[in-house]
Design brief:
The protein has helices at 6-17, 133-141, 166-176, and strands at residues 27-32, 35-39, 45-50, 53-58, 61-62, 72-78, 83-89, 99-104, 108-115, 125-128, 144-150, 156-162. The protein is α+β, with helices and mostly antiparallel strands and 178 residues long. It has a single domain (6-176), classed as Invasion associated locus B (IalB) protein (Immunoglobulin-like, Sandwich), CATH 2.60.40.1880. The radius of gyration is 16 Å and the shape is globular.
Length: 178
């Protein structure tokens, strides 16, 4: 990831999904294949992975030359409530009030919802509502995660993430983080 984008992505994740961790500095605690575990000094953690392939389509044709290389997916766990939060960050503005999908190995599809931004045409985040343990089990047994959303220019953004290392990452997160 380019150094200038990392603080922005990390800050937005912390802002939306870890209010108790606001103001904390996060660092890479562990790496397992395509997934990183980020931790703070107070042992608050989350998982993150960068898209392996990003593409954009308009009228069923791929748009070549669209610079999209910084899309990420994040997962955090609230052990007290036994709940999961998953979010997606796009490097291209997303269409406001739009729904998308997260597909796990063409076996399980989950809905994504774009988070409305206060800045005009800067909606770059989406969340998965109602992520449950069954969904985590699909991620654990899967090998690829595909995100599809509409861009602000009506193009379809398709980002593919590898699930290699996800099992070890989440097991570490559950055992070693608060």
């Amino acid at each position: 990831m380019k150094p200038k984008f990392f603080p922005i992505v990390l800050g937005l994740f912390v802002y939306f999904f870890s209010p108790h961790a606001t103001g904390e500095d996060f660092y890479v605690k562990k790496k397992y294949r395509d997934w990183n575990i980020y931790s703070s000094s107070s042992n608050n953690c989350f998982l993150a992975s960068r898209a392996k392939r990003t593409s954009s389509y308009l009228n069923s044709r791929e748009i070549l030359g669209k610079n999209r290389e910084n899309s990420f997916i994040y997962l955090s766990v609230n052990k007290n409530k036994n709940s999961y939060s998953m979010s997606y960050f796009s490097d291209f503005p997303l269409k406001n009030n739009n729904a998308g999908s997260m597909n796990i190995d063409n076996k399980k599809m989950l809905a994504l919802r774009v988070i409305k931004s206060t800045e005009a045409s800067r909606n770059k985040h989406a969340i998965i509502d109602g992520l449950v343990e069954e969904d985590i089990n699909f991620l654990l047994s899967g090998s690829r995660l595909t995100i599809e959303l509409k861009g602000i220019d009506n193009s379809t953004l398709v980002d593919q993430f590898s699930l290699m290392g996800f099992t070890k990452s989440i097991n570490y997160l559950l055992s070693a983080c608060d």
